[in-house]
Amino acid sequence: MKARVTITLKPGVLDPQGKAIEGALTSLGFSGVNQARQGKVIDLDLAATDESAAREEVGRMCEALLANTVVERYDIAILS
Amino acid sequence: MKARVTITLKPGVLDPQGKAIEGALTSLGFSGVNQARQGKVIDLDLAATDESAAREEVGRMCEALLANTVVERYDIAILS
Q1: Is the distance from CB of B45 to CB of A34 less than 8 angstroms?
Q2: Which end of chain B is less crowded, N or C, counting CB atoms within 10 A of the terminal residue's CB?
Q3: Inter-chain touch B60–A30, beta carbons under 8 Å
């Protein structure tokens, strides 16, 4: 079973990487960028065959390792 | 208008970050992880109001800066 975890910074948390992207895009001549924020996407290939079991396991992975839940939030999509 | 760019490594490209995640998850006791691959997600807040113009501009941003098209592929989703 495949799952995709999308991890993004919580609103209000400063995103220096995003600021760097904004600056670089502007200097490259892209004037229409109001804001850029960068996050992570982790694609997991799981042995689980049951969707709810897979979602629950991935949730525990996020809490234990993949996301810093103080400043990040995560979204789990079970793909197949 | 908001857009989300998801940048992932092309198949076959070695992903040391993904390997590190696999190892860490296994050492934390998650045995059901066959593979993990990490990518980036960039959320853009654009001044553009037309969807096709926004998609075309973001495509140019990806080619110019956001993605290393030698080893990465990108997917553009126009959210609103």
Answers
A1: yes
A2: C
A3: yes
CATH level 3 topology of B2-79: Mth169; Chain: A , (3.30.1280)
B4, A41 in Cβ contact below 8 A? no
Q: What is the C-alpha to C-alpha distance for residues B68 and A2, in angstroms, rounded to an integer?
A: 25
**Residues of chain B neighbouring A18 (CB-CB closer than 8 A):** 42
First-to-final CA distance of chain B: 5
Is A44 exposed, middle or buried, given 0-12, 13-18 or 19+ CB atoms closer than 10 A? Answer: buried
Q: Tell the burial category of B73 from Cβ atoms under 10 Å away from its Cβ (0-12, 13-18, 19+).
A: middle
pTM of the model: 0.94
Query: Could you tell me if the ipTM is greater than 0.85?
Result: yes
Reported as a single tens digit per residue, the pLDDT across B21-61 is 999 999 999 999 999 999 999 999 999 999 999 999 999 99
